[in-house]
Amino acid sequence: MDSVKGHGDLEVIRSIRFIPPNDRIIRIRELLQHDDPEVRYRAILEIAEIPPEKASSILKDVIVSEKNPRNLTTAARVVLDLLGPDGLDLIKDLLQSSEDPRLLADMIEAISIAGDQPQVRTLIMRCLSHNNHRVRGTAVLGLLRIANDKESLGDALDVLLNMVFHPDALFRASAAVGMGAMGLPIFIPPLSHLADDQDVNVTRNALNSLGNIRTPAALAAISTRSASGGWRGEIAASIWGFTSRESFEHMVGVLSYLNMADRKSLGVRFQNLGNSDFFALLEKILNLENQEIRERLTRSLKSFDKDKIEMIANCIKPLDSENTIVDIEPLIGELGASDFVVLSPQAELVPILCGRANEKYEQFIDDAVMNLYREGALLEKAKNFGLFKNTSDEATSFDKFEKKIQVSLHLIALGVENPPQILDAFDKAMSSDKFICSVSQEFLEEKLGRLKASLILPLLMGRRLLSEIAQITEKHFGIKFSDGEKEAVSALMKEKGYFL
Fold it and tell me: 88, 111 in Cβ contact below 8 A?
């Protein structure tokens, strides 16, 4: 196959799942032979989308022929995800023969998801004495996760203890990572010991792991070292700040699942703690009737800047004496304030405050699309009338129109599930590849609805389809500018801020 980097093939891969199963399998097999490992990696991921009975033979070929470590590990994960313990036979030979420590460690991590199978335990225990720190640490962690007998757990803990006191800092650092991944309070004493290590990486890993455990004793160990000064104190202070933020996010996540009475009670308590605007907003959020929006807000509130928090507060209105609702009118006003020339930073709030199928936001988008068509028809008429002073003025006006289209496309995507996927489909709908273009258009019709998609697709071409845009404006929206309206067209263009 072509040895050039497979950017075109990556686009085809994203479209594979939309073609019939038999054709899909043939295409995946072809892409697994590609010279570009990134293309092969994406093709391996697509194997997970086909039936297990058909995927098995493809995965076996991948395990035998693939040389890229990342791709082999991904194939092993797909094998176990699709086939479970039955897939071990496909990968055990690779695990036993591999001399690449990174690949071996990744494979051990992958097979540990198969659970406490005799074959899994045997493969992992062989690596407990491996001379590579990552392999040994991954084996210890894997055995601790799957074993449920005293002997195996004892073996794993003995190896872990030896790593804590190993003369090589890489082994000590790996031990700290492993204990943090388990997150058990039993590891606080050895992690506290490693937090005082003279190697900066060992110390950082140990303090991070204490932050993962997050019990009072673990947090006290971090707090004590944050006051010690020097590089150790700086690391501890940084981790302490991050852990505190995570603790807050966990708190509001828990609050979002409380019943209305408990949330209201806690909201009053927050207000009594101090007259804080932030806690006043949190009280409003806790009293929201819509559980889905309430959960989204409580998860993301801490990450917003002052302007976004103020906007959220403006959008939450009282419903009655106890409950609140979201009214997105202030947000819509902000989004339209620039006349769609620039995307407002507040647009980030659309998926959180509006969610999907918000009638008010849908109307806002419908109006925006209609206005784009109206302005497209205006531009075409202005060009026909010769209203532009020169080609530079004309180009500037058309550039502004296309900027408005791009901003509107972003706003449309934000109101639909998975906005990046929608934006990607907008790009692909203009592809010169007919297959990719067709698949993307069908996808947009499915996600946006046939009518809305049919109106958006001509806008993607901007000035290149201006005459068609003018025709749709008349046919769909009933707006037409006649040949005798030169002065009216000129006035409307100036009103819209176009260069004349």
Answer: yes
> Two tokens at 117?
């199978």
Query: What element of type H or E holds 283?
Result: helix 277-286
Range of lowest pLDDT (6-20, 42-56, 386-400): 6-20
Tell me which range, 28-37, 167-176, 276-285, 389-398, is most confidently predicted by mean pLDDT. Answer: 167-176
Structure-token match 């206005």, residue found = 371
The pTM (predicted TM-score) of the whole model is 0.46
Rg (CA), the chain: 30
Asked whether residue 231 is domain-assigned, the answer is no
pLDDT of residue 204: 95
Q: Residue 313 domain-assigned?
A: yes
Question: Domain range holding 267?
Answer: 256-327
Tally of CA atoms within 13 A in the half-sphere of 353 that contains its CB: 25
Establish if 94 belongs to a structural domain: no
Give the helix/strand (H/E) hosting 317: strand 316-318
Residues 355, 467: contact at Cβ < 8 Å?
no
Percent of the chain at pLDDT > 90 equals 13
Longest dimension (CA), the chain: 93
Q: At 254, which helix (H) or strand (E)? A: helix 230-255
Note the pLDDT of residue 5: 44
Same domain, 262 and 366: no
pLDDT for 499 equals: 59
- At 326, is the secondary structure helix, strand, or coil? strand
Residues whose CB is less than 8 angstroms from the CB of residue 491 and which lie 6 or more positions away in sequence, other chains included: none
Examine the domain organization and report whether 278 and 399 are in the same domain.
Answer: no
Q: Does residue 364 share a domain with residue 288?
A: no
Number of domains forming the structure of the chain: 2
pLDDT in tens, 234-260: 999 888 877 765 555 555 555 555 566
Residue 355 has pLDDT above 90, yes or no: no
Indicate if 278 and 323 belong to the same structural domain.
yes
Calculate mean pLDDT across residues 201-216: 89
CA distances from 157 to 110, 122, 125, 179, 405 (A): 21, 17, 12, 10, 61
Residue with tokens 């530079």: 392
Same domain, 445 and 362: yes
Using CB atoms within 10 Å of the CB of residue 2, give its burial: 0 to 12 exposed, 13 to 18 middle, 19+ buried. Answer: exposed
The token duo for 424 is 């990607």
The pLDDT value given to residue 43: 87
Instruction: Enumerate the H helices of 17-87 as residue ranges.
Output: 21-31, 37-47, 52-65, 69-83
For the cut 80, the answer to whether the pLDDT of residue 470 exceeds it is: no
